[in-house]
Each structure stands twice: as C-alpha cells, then as structure tokens.
Amino acid sequence: MSTPELSTADLQKWLLTVSTHPSGLQAGIQQAQGSHNAVVDQVIDADFGISAAHRLAIYHHGYYARLLNCLQAEYPVLRNAFSPEWFDEMGRRYLAHHPPQTWTLAELGASFPEFLESDRPDGGSEPEPAFDFIVDLARFERARTEVFRGPGIEHADLSSLDAIAEAETLDVIFTLAPSLRLLKLRFDVFTYYSQACQSDEARVPQFGEQHVVISRRNYQVQFREIAPWQFEFLQALSQDVTPRSAINHLRDHAEIDISDTTCHHWLRDCIRHGYFLPARNLEGQAVCMPPRENA
Description:
Elements: H1 8-20, H2 25-36, H3 40-43, H4 52-74, H5 76-81, H6 84-97, H7 112-118, H8 129-149, H9 159-167, E1 181-187, H10 189-196, E2 207-217, E3 220-225, H11 228-237, H12 243-253, H13 260-272
Antiparallel strand pairs: 1-2, 2-3
C-alpha cells in the first residue's frame, strides 16, 4: 500500500470527515479524498477479510448510533408514544441537518422540536392534530431536560423574598429563576407525560390549550399546570418589569383583570415553589426588606 504524505493532524481530519459526514459514509469519503488527495485504500488497511470501506463503515455507523442513543435518552416518552422506528428515522434525518456543534452532547437535541415542526408531513397547510401533539410533547421533554441540566437556585440566598412577600409590595422586580420554563401547549401533555412515565397505557389526549410551568427546587424537577392569567403574568415578569406593571399590561393587552390581593397570593405561591431569584428594585439593586410588624 502506498501511504500518502499526510501529517498526523491531517490523518485525524481525514478520519473525522469520513466518520462523521452527515450525508453518509460515501459522501464523507469523497469529501476527504478531495480535501486531502488520499483515497481510502491508501489510508486504511484491508485486514482480516474486511475491506477498508467496511472497516470505516463501522466507525461511521457507531458514531451516528451513539448520537441517536442520546436523542432516545432525551425524548424517551416521545419515542414510545407512537413508534420507536418512526422516532429513529426522524432522529437520523434531524442529525443529518443538525450535527453536533459543541463539545457537549447536552445540546444535541435542542432543536429537535423545531425540526419536527418544520418537517411536518402535513406541510402546515392543514395542520394534523396528531402531529401538533408530537411537537408539543417534544417541547415538553426538551424543557424538562433544560430544567434538569441547567443552572438552578440551589445556592442562591432567597431569604429576602419571604420578607418582600410579607410586605406585599408590587414595585420590585422579580427575576425568574434560570431553571424555570413556561409552556403554552395545545394538548394536555402534562397528564399524558405523567401517565406515560408510569405505564404503557397512556392515551393521546384531546385537543385543548394547557399552560405549564416546569421548575427545579432542591435538584427536583417539578411540573405544574397553571391558569392562563398566571402564565401571562409570569411571562410579563420575564421582561424585567414589576408585578404592578405586569398587572397593568394584562389589563391593557390581554383583558385580564387581576386584583392586588390575587397578585400577592400568586407571588407568595411562586416564591414558595422557587420560581424567582432575589428581587431587585427599579435601580437594579438587591432588595432586602424587613417584614411588616403586626399592628
């Protein structure tokens, strides 16, 4: 075998191109050959009765099998909801369009819900409810992964929040915790997900809007269905506005009228569930407010 004059770095790049090309092994071989002027038989020995191309195919298959395993682990309920074969096929198509871009595989499936939405079999012209459910379930599982893996509030000092809640002030800024996700869904995905995690008998729910908050406290992921106004209120707070401004926004733009008392109760509930970081005043300074004294 005549070995081409390739440096170790070039040989590594050659093998990387061949093994990871999203369009398949043959496309990788052609690209590597064009880039380095080295054909397969000049780089890889045929040994033990296995051709060079077949030996490379083992690496290529193993690479994408590992990536597919990562998607399967991130979307286990979605994979079992309809057909594992369908999921694996969609996963391969996704990986062809969205190969890994970072050193960590934690972000590999980040765009999978959007890919499913863009690759709908109905083309989006006449939406098929069953596929709406598939996309919503994918969004739910991805949000759950982000909450589980991402930064949380476990090491934050939240002692000032209780005093702020007791003071019933609506003029400080409550920052949503980085481990919080808000989802507006078209189906009761929350109930389906809970059932599917315990049994194979979960049924696809009927169409019906649902609002869900996914959070993490003490390293435990929590799912909770909330009312539409509670969802819109938290969405408004995510824009770094005060609760009073959020109330006014809902009154003016969503025709949702919330009393100050109702808002206070909801803020206390959110604090208890760990939805916020320490509050800030309008100047961006941390707020430390003593509790009100009883009259």
